[in-house]
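We modelled the chain as a single entity of 152 amino acids. Its sequence is:
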Amino acid sequence: MAQWKLVMSGVPQGSILGPILFNIFTNDIDSGIECTLSKFANDTKLCGAVDMLERLGDKWIESSPEEKDLGILVDEKLDMSHQCALAVKKANYILGHIKRSMASRSREVILPLYTTLVRFDLQYCIQLWGPQYKKDMDLLEQVQRRATKMVV
């Protein structure tokens, strides 16, 4: 069995200096790169327009009807209905667990659980995938109503 080793380098997770030191160490990562870089937290993406068929070595780069980026599902037509449905499905799943596992239905118990566990997922990157259609808004409203009905 492997033995634990003490690591004497790096930055402790959750430290105040962590994000600042990360930015200092990775600030020059885009030196010499001739395309656009998108950075968010510790995620870096290379971006560029393609106006012809591209290959990487001897492999063709395949197109995809949808792609997940930073946890958000984006389809080729920028229709966010599938992302909205996934967020609602996850929220309903969590609400179901809250309903089955909590004996108390008081507002003081349910509201903090809803706020931290459910609403967080419903609002994650909402500026990007916010509902475009009434049917998507109605799905999100159903989750809100279901949570409201849980409170006695």
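As a brief sanity check on the tokenised model: The chain has a mean pLDDT of 85. The helical segments are 18-26, 81-101, 107-123, 126-129, 134-150.
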